[in-house]
């Protein structure tokens, strides 16, 4: 039995026109789920990534819930479009993520990204054990059972007092399967500790884009991706502010779409979507530390952005992106925000129609 069928109102105000290195996307609606909703008695929210399963026509969302908000889990979602507008979101079910012994992962594990592998009836997901060894990648059944570790390169491993490897609270959040179906693409929100700083008002953060063979755990390639600096200052002098890479999706032609989410207290969130090409970038696989002079980064070009005050748009903590089904002859892209289980935030799903490039010859 399905836990809930949720149909929520979306904005009917004029929607913005976007431009960039791909044809302009069209926003066809937003559905908002308020914080406080629960499924099977478990609070809904904390969504940190999306992936689309073309076999079932469903999206898979992963929740980074931990602590009092429950263990890491999956949600299966289906969208509806009527008269060219985003009209409904159906929550089909919820599944806890389980290890090889069948036991659910504990609330100390914070999930990050998720990628569906339909050809092998499995998913990949990333996590950080906030009380243990740090970052991890897993392969599991499509239902989230039987998680088996996928090795990460040594540069990602936490060492000592976390002066090396993935930073605490900045796990591998961005994850997708490449168009060849055999390359897992992953990235952290901020630079590895030994590679450089987190983003600031004056400094970009050098994040690694990891291209991994999920069968062997061997890196096919690693590239340097520089995030933007923090795009706005908080309204109070000591207010928090940040910017990082929160999601990515592989394009059919081998390029990527990345999502950078900025935040400044009193100002709000801004979200920038970039199209990324690795052509001409240095392959740094095997390097323990980035050489910021020698290593050439990937090229990124702004596709479009969502910013505070944009008419007809609610901008929140957007962390999720996935290309979805063809509906009415048009390709789609779904995004979602993380409500952080905060009553002042909500889970917002935005649906766009897009024109994706053809695969490279």
Automatic annotation (TrEMBL):
Signal peptide coordinates: 1-19
Phytase-like domain: residues covered: 43-341
Any one Pfam family match given in the protein's UniProt record, by short name: Phytase-like
InterPro entries noted in UniProt: Phytase-like_dom
Domain of life per record: Bacteria
Keyword Signal belongs to the record: yes
Keywords in alphabetical order: Signal
Protein name from the UniProt record: Phytase-like domain-containing protein
The organism of origin for this protein: Thioclava marina
């Amino acid at each position: 039995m399905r836990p809930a069928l949720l149909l929520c109102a979306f904005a009917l105000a004029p929607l913005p026109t976007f431009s960039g290195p791909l044809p302009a996307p069209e926003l066809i609606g937003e559905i908002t789920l308020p914080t406080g909703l629960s499924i099977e008695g478990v609070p809904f929210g904390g969504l940190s990534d999306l992936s689309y399963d073309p076999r079932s026509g469903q999206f898979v969302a992963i929740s980074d819930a931990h602590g009092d908000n429950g263990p890491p889990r999956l949600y299966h979602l289906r969208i509806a479009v009527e008269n060219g507008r985003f009209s409904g979101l159906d929550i089909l079910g919820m599944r806890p993520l389980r290890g090889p012994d069948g036991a659910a992962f504990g609330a100390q594990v914070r999930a990050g990204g998720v990628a569906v592998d339909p050809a092998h009836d499995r998913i990949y997901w990333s996590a950080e054990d906030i009380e243990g060894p740090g970052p991890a990648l897993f392969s599991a059944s499509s239902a989230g059972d039987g998680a088996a570790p996928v090795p990460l390169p040594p540069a990602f491993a936490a060492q000592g007092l976390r002066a090396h490897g993935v930073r605490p609270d900045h796990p591998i959040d961005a994850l997708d399967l490449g168009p060849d179906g055999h390359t897992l693409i992953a990235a952290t929100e901020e630079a590895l500790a030994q590679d450089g700083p987190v983003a600031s008002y004056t400094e970009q953060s050098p994040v690694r884009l990891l291209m991994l063979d999920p069968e062997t755990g061997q890196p096919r390639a690693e590239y340097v991706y520089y995030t933007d600096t923090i795009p706005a200052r908080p309204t109070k002098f000591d207010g928090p502010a940040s910017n990082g890479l929160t999601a990515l999706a592989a394009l059919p032609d081998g390029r990527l779409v990345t999502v950078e989410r900025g935040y400044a207290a009193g100002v709000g969130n801004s979200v920038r979507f970039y199209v990324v090409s690795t052509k001409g970038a240095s392959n740094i696989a095997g390097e323990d530390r980035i050489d910021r002079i020698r290593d050439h980064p990937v090229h990124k070009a702004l596709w479009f952005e969502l910013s505070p005050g944009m008419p007809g748009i609610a901008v929140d903590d957007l962390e999720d992106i996935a290309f979805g089904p063809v509906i009415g002859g048009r390709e789609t892209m779904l995004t979602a925000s993380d409500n952080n289980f905060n009553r002042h935030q909500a889970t917002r799903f935005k649906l766009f129609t897009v024109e994706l490039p053809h695969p490279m010859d």
